[in-house]
Design goal:
single chain; alpha/beta; 10 strands; 37% helix; Ureohydrolase; arginase activity; arginine metabolism
Length: 333
């Protein structure tokens, strides 16, 4: 019997690490350093030790984007913000530019039949990653691991930070909104609400709750994890995105590390207590690896600059690397 992950989709075990060091989807610099820190922690070598051949695929110039962000922050004109109903969709031009670059890089990887592991950066980069994966696998299901739903539209967002809006762009919910940023009109917006399931939710805005209910999106909060257990929730999520095949079919996982409780992963931009334990967070991707259905993985929102102590940096980066290793087949025995 063949063992190991991804044997249904990636028998060649070839993988590309896409670097997406972008922080413009939110207001805190430092999250662009996450990919570099994960590589310094030995992530690429540890993936190769699992039997994968790897290559690096940079998607953008980190220094260039940080420079643009600093210039915009210092600007008195508001830069590329777009005003809608009194709320600014902040740094819209930069988010559009960055996510298109990520889209191009991930498209190159998936079209070459390599597994895309994308390291963010903030969660706005998933606009690019998910769009590219859906081009290759239009029937793919998306598991969104996060404390937050990230499905605000540019009309409902209370903060204007676009890392809280990627799912609404992926679903095309902003296309008919007045003043939708021109820079993000490239997004296909073809993610079906029947093809996404959330795990780990515990901080959902009122506007997001309305969208989730109206569209009937599968959403498993920490209440469900506590009630049913993490394995049952994963099974329910996989069946929700592939109901006709009992959960079997291509699955992409977009993993915000704040889905895990900040006790374990403290250096992240929007921590919310009461989340997944580290073991639950790792079991989740171990189970996806075991299923053989995982076709792409994002790991986002590691921000070493927000650590209070060096141990917080170490804990956060090592946990992010562990998520990747477990998703790619690492087992205890």
């Amino acid at each position: 019997m063949e063992t190991g992950p991804h044997y249904n989709y990636y028998k060649n075990r070839e993988l590309s690490i896409i670097l997406a060091p972008f922080s413009g989807g939110q207001g805190k610099l430092g999250v662009e350093k996450g990919p570099k820190y994960m590589l310094k922690h030995g992530l690429q070598t540890s993936i190769e030790e699992l039997g994968w051949s790897t290559e690096l695929e940079p998607s953008m110039d980190e220094a260039q984007f940080v420079g643009k962000l600093k210039m915009e922050k210092d600007s008195t004109t508001g830069g590329s913000s777009v005003m809608t109903n009194g709320i600014k969709a902040k740094r819209a031009d930069l988010v559009g530019e960055a996510t298109k670059l990520v889209y191009n890089s991930v498209s190159k990887v998936v079209q070459a039949d390599r597994f895309p592991l994308t390291l963010g950066g903030d969660h706005s980069i998933a606009i690019g990653t998910v769009s590219a994966v859906l081009d290759k696998y239009p029937d793919a299901g998306l598991l969104w691991i996060d404390a937050h739903a990230d499905i605000n539209t540019i009309e409902s967002t209370p903060s204007g930070n676009l890392h809280g809006c990627p799912v609404s762009f992926l679903m095309g919910l902003n296309k008919d909104v007045p003043h939708c940023p021109e820079s993000l009109k490239w997004v296909p917006g073809n993610l079906s609400p029947k093809k996404i399931a959330y795990i780990g939710l515990r901080d959902v805005d009122a506007g997001e709750k309305k969208i989730l209910k109206e569209l009937g999106i599968a959403a498993f909060s920490m209440y469900h994890v506590d009630k049913y257990g993490i394995n049952a929730v994963i099974e329910m999520a996989m069946k929700a995105v592939h109901p006709d095949t009992n959960g079997e079919g291509p699955i992409m996982c977009s993993y915000d590390v704040d889905g895990v409780d900040p006790l374990y992963i403290p250096a992240t931009g929007t921590p919310v207590r009461g989340g997944l334990t580290l073991r639950e967070g790792l079991f989740l991707v171990e189970r996806l690896a075991e299923s053989g259905n995982l076709i792409a993985l994002d790991i986002v929102e590691c921000n070493p600059d927000l650590a209070i102590h060096d141990i917080h940096v170490s804990n956060t980066i090592s946990a992010g690397c562990a998520i990747a290793r477990c998703a790619l087949g690492e087992t205890l025995l």
